[in-house]
Amino acid sequence: MTQPAPIRRAPGKPLLTTALELAALMVPVLPLRAGKVPFGNCRACVGNACGGRPNMLTPGRCHCPGPCHAWAAATTDHATLTGPAWALAWRQTAEVAYHPGGAGVTVVDLDHADAIAWARETLPATRTVPTTRGEHWIYRGAMRSANAVRDGVDIKSSMVYARWLGPGTGHMTALPDAVRALIVKKPSPVRPVTAPMPAGGAQCRHRTPIYLERGIAMAEQRITEAAGGVHATVYRTFLAVLSAHGRCGCLTDAHAARLFAAAQTKGETARHCSDAWSNARTALGM
């Protein structure tokens, strides 16, 4: 997001005009209906029947006849914003929204006075924008989004939209580690690993303990280095580990805990880890 942003939410100013001014500053925008909600998907994408690809991956890549897929419809393309496919949406638009992550910023959404007081005591000063109930604190730099990181505090950056409420006041500062740390959770305990021995009590086929250690280390690295599609990467990695080590009795709770911890540092919840582990075991007939 270019700094300072000169676009103001002037009374009577056409919303499409505001959207085009933001798009000219390379801020991806989209229209919102009354109630601060995006427009529904087109008929071809109802119920995410299209699979959401590529639309849910990168903003501005939705090629549907209208602003489909919520935040992923956000675009800076003038022809799209002013084209006939979006014309009806703009006539029904109540507010303009933008994709913070696509603009290279992170919004700390503070929902009430106590949250604002916490931010003033804890976070470095930056550009602030008043909202209906609180404030948006906007930092330069994108990160993963998360809701309810503490009472009244949401993080809006990648894969979400935020309402455009004006340029705000103050100098936009760099995204601090204190904000990034809000979404990092301590690994939760894992469920016990029950890997039955093969029928007949076959001996472990691993030549040395190093073989297993190397496999777990490689699995941790694969999860940690995932640049996208973390859910899928975690599941495939769990599947590979269980396929190689899950039937001989060598795999322990400590090994599983290391994999769960790696997944949780990438934003996976303990429940997602447990579900992925269970689904991998089921797929392998374990």
Which secondary structure elements does this structure contain, and how are they paired or packed?
Blueprint: H1 15-24, E1 29-33, E2 37-38, H2 78-82, H3 84-91, E3 95-98, E4 105-110, H4 113-122, E5 127-130, E6 135-140, E7 146-150, E8 153-156, E9 162-163, H5 177-180, H6 209-224, H7 230-245, H8 253-265, H9 270-283
Antiparallel strand pairs: 1-2, 1-3, 3-9, 4-6, 4-8, 5-6, 7-8
Describe this protein with a few key phrases:
alpha+beta, 5-stranded antiparallel sheet, 286 residues, 9 helices, 4-stranded antiparallel sheet
Structure description:
- The protein has 286 residues and is α+β, with helices and mostly antiparallel strands.
- It is built from nine helices and nine strands.
- It has a five-stranded antiparallel β-sheet with strand order 5-6-4-8-7.
- Helix 6 packs antiparallel against helix 7 and helix 6 runs parallel beside helix 8 (253-265).
- The longest helix is centred in the last third of the chain and has 16 residues, at 209-224.
- It is globular.
- The chain starts with 14 loop residues before the first helix and ends with a helix.
Quick structural gist:
The protein has helices at residues 15-24, 78-82, 84-91, 113-122, 177-180, 209-224, 230-245, 253-265, 270-283; strands at residues 29-33, 37-38, 95-98, 105-110, 127-130, 135-140, 146-150, 153-156, 162-163. It has 286 residues and is of the alpha+beta class.
Estimated helix fraction: 25-40%
Unreliable residue runs: 53-57, 192-202
Q: Beta fraction of the residues?
A: 5-15%
> Span between N and C termini?
50 Å
Supply Rg.
23 Å
